[in-house]
Write a structure and sequence with these properties.
By secondary structure, the protein is α+β, with helices and mostly antiparallel strands. It is built from 8 helices and 11 strands.
């Protein structure tokens, strides 16, 4: 079921990682920030509610949608009290899962600033418009999408694979990972002079920072 969900979400434009256990989920979250989590309650090495409690105790406010086969109102209320943002009872229609995820992401976006900034560089996610000290930058859609991914996680190293998924998740095309290097090179030239810089962390990925 999990594999089917990942495939369906990928087709709708959501890049996903699949963790088969709490331990694997922790390993993913140690190196990657996510826009939302879909969390099952019964996992091979524990309860999803335990992982949810752990995240909230650490101050991690990533939106969480719980999947549960439990029908008790008390169980659902307990999950929400622990910090879940929504829940879905199995079996469910995948279209409902997609709709609920989109609602969570919209809510999270609405609660955040509508402009992302690093130094003199600013980016408007809703319109994919980027500016350098108020002057609009001419970016292609993929360049703008890539810049948006970097700016949502300033100073955080993002792998080439994650950037690739962010750009090509809507397209069924055979494009190599080297395409990311091409777009990074173009972006560096276009944001030059903004006070922001894209750094290469060899073997790890890229991050956007204020230039020294």
């Amino acid at each position: 079921m999990a594999e089917a969900i990942v495939t369906r979400l990928a087709r709708s434009g959501m890049a996903c990682d699949l963790a088969d256990s709490i331990a694997e989920a922790r390993a993913f979250m140690d190196v990657q920030r996510y826009d939302a989590l879909v969390l099952d309650i019964n996992l091979p090495d524990g309860l999803g509610t335990d992982l949810l409690r752990e995240l909230r105790n650490k101050g991690d406010r990533t939106p969480v949608l719980m999947l549960t086969a439990l029908f008790s109102v008390d169980d659902r209320v307990s999950a929400l009290d622990l910090g879940a943002d929504d829940y879905l009872v199995k079996p469910f229609d995948q279209r409902e899962l997609e709709a609920r995820l989109r609602a969570l992401l919209r809510r999270e976006t609405d609660q955040k600033a509508d402009v992302l900034k690093v130094a003199g560089l600013s980016f408007h996610p809703a319109t994919l418009r980027a500016e350098n000290s108020g002057q609009r930058l001419e970016l292609t859609r993929r360049e703008a999408t890539l810049l948006g991914v970097l700016l949502r996680h300033p100073r955080q190293v993002i792998s080439k694979e994650r950037l690739y998924e962010g750009i090509y998740s809507f397209d069924d095309v055979d494009v190599g990972l080297n395409a990311i290097e091409l777009y990074i090179g173009r972006l560096r030239k276009k944001i030059s002079g903004s006070g922001a810089a894209i750094e290469t962390q060899r073997g790890l990925g890229y991050r956007i920072v204020e230039s020294g």
